[in-house]
Amino acid sequence: MQRVLGTHHFHVVFTLPAELRALALRNRNLVFELLMKAAADSLLELGRDPKWLGAPAQLGITAVLHTWTRELAFHPHVHCIVTGGGLALDGSRWVAAPGEFLFPVRVLGALFRGKVLGGLARARRDGKLRLGPEDEGRAAARRTEALHRAAWIVYAKRPFGGPEQVYRYVGRYTHRVAISNSRLVSATRETVTFRTRGDQTAALPPLVFLRRFLQHVLPHGFVKIRHYGLLASGNVTTRLERARALLGGGGAQRDDPPADQEGDPDEAWSERLADVAAVDLSLCPSCGAHDLQRGPLPSHHPTSARAPPEVAA
In tens digits, what is the pLDDT along the chain, a chain of 313 residues? Predict the structure, then answer.
């Protein structure tokens, strides 16, 4: 939030087609990396094309990988929060995008499609893909041809209420798992029932529920929140600050601090942690009781030092 520029932003979502989800399950790290990079590179490439913004510019992008639906189905897609314009490549001015339009979704989808399919083809040629029976033979070739012809889904919309609203929306699930405890209705030996949308529920056999849930555990060490362009780590203190100066130094409006922040700073951050990440520090992790009291552990001072062992002459 501290890095948000004082300009309008767009919310863009890139979705992996259903035909590639089985391949993604077998090659999670490779496909997730490719998905995030292709999404960001597509946006950055169109930003550098003067045809769309009027002059070549570098956008600022925050990308978040999301892999589940409300029914816990495997549905990899990337949420991108994109600046409404970018810094001119020579740093001389801010190149603004129209208020209600960033790039044509058909152009964006076609570019994204080419980058993903090209990356998969290279990985297959280099022997880096784990393939299944459906990835071999004429049927696989026909499916690949169909994927090249199909329009890939890219959703783009200017967020209502400003960029802060979208960052908070995305931030509410970036550090959560695929389903929260509050959505669980019941669990028996036969079924696990959980809420999906509104008053709707889904009931699955326990092993099916666990299999769906574990599909969304990311590969070890995978970073699902990434920053590109102006927001990349190498540009934060240079080009990002130049863009901020050109935009008049504006940024995101912070919330007013809680009334009790001065008296009890721990309570302020713990309440925010509970709101954003659904982690309640007032609950005992062992029994689940409220009103957990925290305090320093008593220091342990040995009463006497142990003598060195005797050595026989």
Answer: 778 898 989 999 999 999 999 999 999 999 999 999 999 999 999 999 999 999 999 999 999 999 999 999 999 999 999 999 999 999 999 999 987 889 999 999 999 999 999 999 999 999 999 988 877 888 888 888 999 999 898 998 776 667 677 777 777 767 778 898 889 999 999 999 999 988 899 999 999 999 999 999 999 999 999 999 999 999 999 999 999 999 987 554 434 343 344 445 555 677 777 776 667 777 877 777 776 777 788 876 655 555 555 555 4
List the helix and strand counts (H, then E) for the chain. 9, 11
Helices in the chain by DSSP H: which ranges? 21-26, 28-48, 50-53, 105-125, 137-149, 163-174, 206-214, 239-246, 265-277
Report the chain's C-alpha Rg in angstroms: 25
In this structure, are residues 7 and 84 in contact, taking their beta carbons and an 8 Å threshold?
yes
Question: What SS3 class is residue 242?
Answer: helix
Under 8 Å between Cβ of 82 and 70: no
DSSP secondary structure code for residue 292 in this structure: -
